[in-house]
């Protein structure tokens, strides 16, 4: 609950959260790159860590990932879910390795989710390429040219 005189707003993450998130992301990428994980699902797969979102108390980190070389249709693909489960199973080990490579006072607990931002971007691009939308965009461009 907010104290008297304070109001709660959705300002987004603080600079500290952003900085810690980026540090954890870099460390996680290094660990995944150089460490041989024993899980057979993770042996021959490359994983891109697109973002790490840190909770305000800096104790939890949500790691958004995209496995490369596999079909990714909104994260519903079985292979993608297997990779996320395998990373979740290795989360304690990954946290330990991150703790050894960073200078953080407390290393956050890791949670892994599929990053849907690429799917959303592809969907928006395909919508913009539809003939009826392209026609409307051309009309708007012609009208703005006439006004100038």
Largest sheet: 3 strands, mixed
Task: Provide the low-confidence segments as ranges.
Answer: 1-8
Whole-number mean pLDDT: 82
CATH architectural arrangement of the largest domain = 2-Layer Sandwich
Q: Could you say which overall geometry the principal axes of the C-alpha atoms support?
A: flat
Structural class determined from secondary elements: alpha+beta
Q: How much helical structure, as a percent, in the residues?
A: 40-55%
Number of helix segments? 6
What is the CATH domain class of the largest domain?
Alpha Beta
Strand order of the largest sheet: 1-2-3
Q: What is the β-strand count?
A: 3
Q: Measured on Cα atoms, how large is the radius of gyration?
A: 21 Å
Determine the N-to-C terminus distance.
52 Å
Q: Order of helices and strands, N to C?
A: HHEEHHEHH
The CATH topology of the largest domain is what? GMP Synthetase, Chain A, domain 3
Compute the number of structural domains.
2
- CATH homologous superfamily of the largest domain? K homology (KH) domain
Assess the beta-strand content as a share of residues: 5-15%
Walk me through this protein's architecture.
The protein contains six helices and three strands. The chain is of the alpha+beta class and 148 residues long. The chain folds into two domains: 15-115, GMP Synthetase, Chain A, domain 3, CATH 3.30.300; 116-148. The chain has a three-stranded mixed beta sheet with strand order 1-2-3. Helix 1 (15-34) packs across helix 4. The longest helix is centred in the N-terminal third of the chain and has 20 residues, at 15-34. It is flat and about 55 Å long.
């Amino acid at each position: 609950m907010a104290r008297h005189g304070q109001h709660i707003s959705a300002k987004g993450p603080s600079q500290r959260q952003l900085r810690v998130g980026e540090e954890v992301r870099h460390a996680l990428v290094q660990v995944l790159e150089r460490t041989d994980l024993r899980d057979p699902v993770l042996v021959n797969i490359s994983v891109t860590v697109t973002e790490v979102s840190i909770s305000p108390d800096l104790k939890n980190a949500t790691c958004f990932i995209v496995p490369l070389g596999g079909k990714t249709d909104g994260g519903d693909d079985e292979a993608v879910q297997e990779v996320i489960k395998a990373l979740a199973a290795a989360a304690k080990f990954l946290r330990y390795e991150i703790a050894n490579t960073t200078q953080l006072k407390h290393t956050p607990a890791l949670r892994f989710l599929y990053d849907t931002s690429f799917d959303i971007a592809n969907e928006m691009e395909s919508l913009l390429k539809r003939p009826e939308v392209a026609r409307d965009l051309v009309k708007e461009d012609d009208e703005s040219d006439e006004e100038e």
